[in-house]
Design goal:
Layout (H helix, E strand, L loop, with lengths): L2 H10 L5 E2 H8 L3 H14 L3 E4 L10 E4 L5 H9 L10 H5 L5 E2 L2 E2 L17
Antiparallel strand pairs: 1-3, 2-3, 4-5
Length: 122
């Protein structure tokens, strides 16, 4: 995570959705720099882009925010510079689990999923 990512996450960590222009004014980056870093953070799953309600015609407006499921991780990463956030989909993480065999959890005797995995902290 670089300076730009940290600045964007620090601005969005309060959970309030902000549109692109508002966010652009708050972080003080160029248009292209902000767009590039927002795309990367969305791919990592650290922020979410949602379509905002519009009262007029034209291009849709989007709002960005940190989802509630990642707020804690973002706060920890911003406080401690030695923490690095890694975003893995559960399908990739499942293959690292020693209890998973062919899509089934040997410990719970059920289909392997993030909701029932005994190794994921809730």
């Amino acid at each position: 995570m670089d300076f730009f990512d940290e600045r964007i996450l620090a601005t969005l960590k309060d959970g309030k959705p902000r549109d692109f222009n508002t966010l652009l004014g708050e972080v003080g980056f160029t248009h292209n720099t902000l767009q590039q870093h927002l795309e990367r953070l969305m791919v990592q799953g650290l922020i979410v882009r949602e379509k905002a309600a519009a009262n007029s015609f034209g291009r849709p407006k989007f709002a960005y925010h940190v989802p509630s499921r990642t707020t804690k991780q973002v706060s920890v990463a911003l406080q401690d510079p030695h923490v690095e956030l890694v975003a893995l989909p559960f399908s990739r993480l499942r293959h690292l689990c020693r209890f998973e065999k062919g899509g089934h959890c040997k410990e719970t005797k059920k289909t392997c999923s993030p909701q029932i995995c005994p190794k994921i902290r809730k």
